[in-house]
Write a structure and sequence with these properties.
The protein is 64% helix and 0% strand. By secondary structure, it is mainly alpha-helical. α11 (211-223) packs antiparallel against α12 (227-240).
Length: 299
């Protein structure tokens, strides 16, 4: 506007603090440093480092990258699809069995096991219980649905073989199914299929079992609420190998779990509270004493 004087840049810009002025004949502060500013310090980091720290505070590290998220989702969906395929094959097998087509039903187990284990039914029949569990539960977070589906397949295959008179082939499959049922019972609040587990218990009850298998049986019976039968199985495991402290420790842990239950629940399971306490006292007496020569446990 007319009559107004245009101010120079020196007049418009604010004057720097006195502490920030550079001596006329002295060295200038290092480039990018805050030395010389009010409140500054000689060892302050350079400007780019401070800006980077500030950006980290304002923008924290992001979560999983989109690619990682897609891979995790794909793996989960893939596993669910494999379980679904195995379930569909099991439904076909049971349908054929109901119609009396036992041989045709047995011929489908290759296709049923393949999605979940990556091997044929013949290979599965050669695996020990430990090998099968290792194959199913490798990794930090094994999927219990996968274990439960293989348990159903083993039980169905064993039933068909037993009904066809091939008891020799059915027995090892029942034992493998028992190992999977014991694994599930120890890691879930309830068995996925209580009716299947109850029928499996009846099938294996008459078999010759090792001490380890009897402890697996006891775990399934405990999950079914049959506490008196579970106690019997544990004492049978102890009597089978009196020198092994493992079954004794397992039985003590069993009694300690029962002490946390309501007495009415124990009564319904056939093992009243006073009997639980008496069994626990006996087990503690059977527990071998720890001596100075014993090696400390590996933690």
């Amino acid at each position: 506007m007319a009559g107004m004087r245009t101010r120079s840049a020196r007049e418009v810009l604010p004057r720097p603090p006195a502490a920030c002025k550079v001596p006329r004949n002295g060295p200038a502060p290092p480039l990018g440093s805050f030395r010389g500013l009010p409140g500054g310090r000689a060892g302050a980091p350079p400007l780019p480092a401070l800006l980077l720290q500030s950006s980290r505070l304002r923008y924290p590290p992001a979560g999983p990258k989109p690619l990682t998220w897609r891979l995790v989702t794909y793996q989960r969906d893939y596993l669910m699809r494999q379980i679904e395929i195995a379930g569909q094959m099991l439904a076909r097998i049971l349908g054929l069995a109901r119609r009396g087509q036992r041989d045709e039903a047995l011929g489908l187990f290759d296709q049923a096991y393949q999605p979940l284990l990556g091997v044929s039914a013949r290979v599965v029949s050669t695996l020990s219980e430990e090998q099968l569990l290792s194959l199913l539960t490798s990794g930090s977070m094994p999927d219990l649905r996968r274990v439960a589906t293989v348990l159903e397949l083993l039980k169905a295959e064993a039933d068909l073989l037993a009904e066809g008179g091939n008891r020799a082939a059915a027995v090892p499959r029942y034992r493998r199914a028992l190992a999977l049922a014991g694994f599930l019972a120890a890691r879930s609040a309830a068995l996925p299929d209580a009716a299947l587990a109850a029928d499996l218990v009846e099938r294996v009850g008459a078999l010759e079992l090792t001490a380890a298998q009897r402890t697996q049986l006891a775990r399934v019976l405990e999950a079914l609420g049959r506490y008196a039968d579970a106690e019997d199985a544990l004492f049978e495991a102890i009597d089978a190998d009196p020198d092994d402290p493992g079954p004794v420790d397992t039985a003590i842990a069993f009694c300690q779990r029962l002490l946390a239950l309501d007495p009415s629940v124990l009564d319904a399971g056939g093992l009243p509270l006073d009997e639980v306490k008496a069994s626990l006292a006996e087990l503690l007496r059977r527990q071998p004493a720890v001596t100075d020569d014993d090696e400390p446990p590996a933690w």
